[in-house]
Amino acid sequence: MTEFVTSADGTVIAFDRTGEGPPIILVGGATQFRAFDATTIELAHQLAARGFTAVNYDRRGRGESTDTPPFAIEREIEDIDALVTEVGGSAALYGSSSGAALCLWAAATGVAVTKLVLWEPPLSLPGEGDDGAWLAGLAQRVAAGDHESAAEFFMRDMPPEWLETARHSDAWQTMLEIAPTLVYDAAVLERAQHGPWNELWATVTMPTLVIVGEQTLPDFPPVAEALVAALPNAAQRRIDAANHDWEPGVMADAIAAFLRGGFPRPDGPKRVG
């Protein structure tokens, strides 16, 4: 049954709570929300079966959640903070793709995060950013009301077949409807270009696991390695996954093992699995 929590600016955030045990909040990436993302719903059920309370929510502007302009990354952080308060005052976070960057900003800002799990954050490596050009171009298209152009622009650096598959799928119309929220994902990624990661995320001291797929795209492993090097208490794991997709059972096993364990060890290796 859908539940609702009110964020600091009055935005209503819709979520499902599944299972009983230590809470983990699932933070979606671009276009992800409950009615459009059966894989994350299954992940929530898999985590519940492993003894956790999984909270799967619609980020603002998507699904049953409302939105309150003007947008700022801080508003999305407040949404996560409201969910953390709702589930008891502290929680682990799992971030998928651009949602992983949002998790990092939430943890850095002081949200009561116990552990972080980050799935293939699509960040630009330090020194390789575009000084905000991608974000600005996307925002211009959204402001002009050209949602199709915005969605295409957002996916411009992804494998071309991903865009073609999306354009010819039943999901394309939904993607166009929520295209304005793509600016939110671009913003959380662009902010990582504003300084060295070890400085931007110096306060992200909780145990953090960065996960990439064994058959992933070439951009993700270097980013994972750079994050592990920059974060105070992080390690990397590879799982059986490909093309930015994963199986719920495989991901649930990796998350549950990390949440239950004492890893990463301060004197241990920076990579496992």
TrEMBL record:
<protein>
    <submittedName>
        <fullName>Pimeloyl-ACP methyl ester carboxylesterase</fullName>
    </submittedName>
</protein>
<dbReference type="InterPro" id="IPR029058">
    <property type="entry name" value="AB_hydrolase_fold"/>
</dbReference>
<dbReference type="Pfam" id="PF12697">
    <property type="entry name" value="Abhydrolase_6"/>
</dbReference>
<dbReference type="InterPro" id="IPR050228">
    <property type="entry name" value="Carboxylesterase_BioH"/>
</dbReference>
<dbReference type="InterPro" id="IPR000073">
    <property type="entry name" value="AB_hydrolase_1"/>
</dbReference>
<feature type="domain" description="AB hydrolase-1">
    <location>
        <begin position="25"/>
        <end position="247"/>
    </location>
</feature>
